[in-house]
Design a protein that fits this description.
single chain; 403 residues; mainly alpha; two-stranded antiparallel ribbon; 17 helices; 4 strands; 66% helix; flat
Length: 403
């Protein structure tokens, strides 16, 4: 434990640590705001114009919304896709445009000529929907296959794929009764605090999913540049103690600003709604389960890659992983869990979706904690081999080279 405190003192003297802390504060504050929006907890009233949107699995709604967008894009031959998270606008050539015409024709059971007429007029509105698409519709299974085929024709990355179509187009306006149910869940199950905590963790997870890697890489890489690594190699302290002490020091020191900023918003919630109506401990529970595993993995990636390569490669690795994961989560931003590294819940509410997926969230976080631990164990082994002179930066030395 003494070595952990030594590492903490050393880290606190590094400008990179304070830059990291400032970036974490600045990012979360810029996204979450300087104060909580208490109006988000207003009780829904009868006959309001809008109660928000709710996810639905109703295929009629999904089909109509998905096809409306597809036809609009088809009519002007301009499609929006996000392959690997990057925006890309697709204009189909004559051959592929003909294939898309056939796909749309098959979806609605109307002639290719009618579809081509729609494209030649370069416009689409709700009246066109009934005029052109009055033919016999395919089954839901066939519809999903055809839309997935359209996605492949566009090179992937569109919202028409089987994987994304339901989450992207499966929304409808919430009714008053549903809005009341959602409100009551936030009051009774979330105790108000939980609803805001998930929203906070959505942004907090994004920030902690990339910013801390710069600190981890800098600390290990500076050892190499300052020749301090050679001194560490000849110490009697075990490799596991050295690696885990530094890792623990980073984890503790970066968890503290997260807890501080969480407390800032937690206090606002208590002041706005009263201690008797809230559950302050929920905020810290969400931070622990939702964000700390993200921090653990990011620090492990920085530690592992820098020890193995003696280079800042970990920054690039983490940036690519972060970028792909964040953009993958956009399709289910109001409650995206599954295998995502950074869990998304960018809405105050949707409590039932969280409750339905709570078990999978715990499993998800447990897996990523395990990944972090495994990377650390491997890092210790590589570090040990380097101290023994059996490993260079990029590979194991031959035995004859070390005699």
């Amino acid at each position: 434990m003494n070595l952990v405190f030594v590492e903490m003192k050393r880290i606190l003297k590094k400008p990179i640590f304070w830059i990291t802390v400032v970036l974490i504060f600045a990012f979360i504050r810029s996204q979450f705001g300087s104060s909580i929006n208490v109006s988000r907890m207003d009780k829904p009233l009868p006959n309001q114009e809008n109660y928000g949107m709710i996810q639905t699995s109703d295929m009629e709604i999904i089909r109509k919304r998905a096809v409306s967008q597809l036809i609009q894009e088809y009519s002007i031959n301009s499609y929006t896709t996000y392959p690997n998270g990057f925006y890309r606008n697709i204009d189909l050539n004559k051959e592929k445009n003909t294939q898309m015409t056939k796909i749309i024709s098959a979806i609605f059971g109307v002639s290719v000529e009618n579809i081509e007429k729609l494209q030649s007029e370069h416009s689409f509105n709700s009246e066109d929907y009934n005029e052109f698409f009055s033919g016999e519709k395919v089954s839901n299974e066939e519809f999903l296959e055809l839309m997935d085929k359209a996605d492949r024709l566009l090179g992937g990355g569109s919202f028409y794929s089987k994987k994304l179509i339901k989450s992207q187009f499966g929304e409808r306006p919430m009714t008053y009764d549903e809005a009341i149910k959602n409100y009551e869940l936030m009051i009774k199950k979330d105790k108000i605090t939980g609803a805001y905590a998930r929203y906070f963790c959505d942004y907090g997870g994004i920030g902690m999913g990339i910013i801390p890697v710069f600190l981890a890489v800098a600390l290990w890489f500076q050892d190499k540049r300052s020749k301090c690594e050679n001194l560490l190699f000849i110490r009697k302290t075990s490799s596991s103690k050295l690696v885990f002490s530094r890792y623990s020091a980073m984890l503790i020191l970066l968890s503290l600003p997260l807890i501080i900023i969480a407390s800032y918003y937690n206090i606002q919630i208590i002041r706005s709604f009263g201690l008797e109506n809230t559950k302050p401990v929920y905020f810290y529970g969400y931070v622990l389960i939702w964000i700390i595993p993200v921090l653990m993995v990011v620090l492990s990636v920085g530690t592992f890659t820098t020890i193995v390569t003696n280079s800042p490669l970990g920054i690039l690795v983490m940036m690519v992983w972060w970028f792909l994961d964040v953009f993958k989560g956009v399709s289910s931003i109001k409650g995206g869990y599954g295998h995502n590294f950074i869990l998304r819940h960018n809405i105050i509410g949707n409590t039932q979706i969280y409750l339905n997926n709570r078990a999978s969230i715990f499993i998800n976080r447990g897996i990523y904690v395990l990944i972090a631990v495994v990377m650390l164990i491997i890092s210790v082994k590589i570090y040990d081999l380097k101290r023994e002179g059996k490993v260079f930066a990029y590979g194991i030395r031959k035995e004859k080279d070390i005699k």
